[in-house]
Structures are given as C-alpha cells and as structure tokens.
Automatic annotation (TrEMBL):
This is RNA recognition motif domain-containing protein. Residues 2-79 form the RRM domain. It comes from the Bacteria. Coiled coil: none annotated. The lineage of its organism: Bacteria, Pseudomonadati, Thermodesulfobacteriota, Desulfovibrionia, Desulfovibrionales.
Length: 86
C-alpha cells in the first residue's frame, strides 16, 4: 500500500472526482482531502492510498495532469515530520 500526495487540486473537486481519476490506474483504498481546521474549507491538497503497482503508474501519469485548468502535483507521500507541541 502506498500513500500518494496530491497537490494543486481544484477547489471544486470532490473525493469521488479524485478517486475516479486515480482509479484508472489501480485499486484506490482511500482518498482524504485536507480541510483547514479553523474554517473547514478545502486546502487544495490531499492524499490517496493505492496498491503499490497502481500507485507507481498513477504518480507517473498524473504528475502535471491538468484537472479543471490546474496542473496536479503528484508524488509519493513522505512521513509527516513531528511537530513541536506548544
């Protein structure tokens, strides 16, 4: 299973739109579009989890893909760095 970072997603896109797009390359197990904690508004990026074989093909094909006039930024997600607690 691979986690894929997807950036520059159009603000009108839904989880189903992203799932359908990545589903062309393999089995999508989850899609999470990130929202701002304060406003609840979509922040323009998210994460897709896919099986390894399909993930590599999706990253290759969809990095730079034009989705509603916005070029997607697609790469393998990096582990989140620990954030200091305040």
């Amino acid at each position: 299973m691979k986690s894929i970072y997807v950036g520059n997603i159009p603000f009108g896109a839904t989880e189903n739109d992203v799932r359908d797009l990545f589903g062309e390359y393999g089995n999508v197990t989850s899609v999470k579009l990130i929202q701002d904690h304060e406003t609840g508004r979509f922040r323009g990026f998210g994460f897709v989890e896919m099986e390894d074989a399909g993930a590599a093909a999706a990253i290759e094909a969809l990095d730079g893909y034009d989705m509603s006039g916005r070029p997607l930024k697609v790469n393998e997600a990096k582990p989140r760095a620990p954030r200091p607690r305040h």
